[in-house]
Amino acid sequence: MFRLRTRSLSSPSSIRPSKRLTSALALLILVLVGGGIAFLATTDLSPPLKTLEKVIPDERFPR
Predict the structure, then answer these.
(1) Rounded distance between C-alpha atoms, residue 1 and residue 25, angstroms
(2) What is the DSSP string of 11-48?
(3) Using an 8 Å Cβ cutoff, are 35 and 42 in contact?
(4) For every residue of 45-62, which 3-state class applies, written as one string?
(5) What is the pLDDT of residue 7?
(6) Distance CA 33, CA 41 (A)
(7) What CA–CA distances, in Å, run from 14 to 5, 22, 26, 30, 45?
(8) Can you give the pLDDT at residue 42?
(9) In which region does residue 51 sit, left (phi positive, over 0), alpha (psi from -120 to 50) or beta (all else)?
(10) Cα separation of 36 and 23, whole Å?
(11) Quick one: pLDDT at residue 56?
(12) Residues in CB range of 14: below 8 A, 6 or more apart
């Protein structure tokens, strides 16, 4: 009369697909953020240096 359950509620196959997708997206975001932080921590991001000289005519300054 009574049926026994063959799957336990804690088995991975009982996880709903939406929860599995959410977990996968959260893991992907965590890996991307961690990779970005590691990239910024290990890369030398100095701005390019260039000497700039500009001649301003005397007519632009009031006397």
Answers:
(1) 43
(2) SGGGS-HHHHHHHHHHHHHHHHHHHHHHHHHHS--PPP
(3) no
(4) CCCCCCCCCCCCCHHHCC
(5) 56
(6) 12
(7) 12, 15, 19, 24, 47
(8) 94
(9) beta
(10) 20
(11) 85
(12) 7, 8
Per-residue model confidence (pLDDT) at position 9 = 53
Q: Length of the chain, please? A: 63
Give how far the C-alpha of residue 40 lies from the chain's centroid of Cα atoms, to the nearest Å: 11
Per-residue pLDDT of the chain (63 residues; tens, 9 = 90+): 666 655 555 555 566 788 899 999 999 999 999 999 999 999 988 888 999 899 888 887 877
| Tokens, residue 20 | 């599995």
What is the biggest distance separating any 2 CA atoms in the chain, rounded to whole angstroms?
107
The radius of gyration of the chain's CA atoms, rounded to the nearest angstrom, is 31
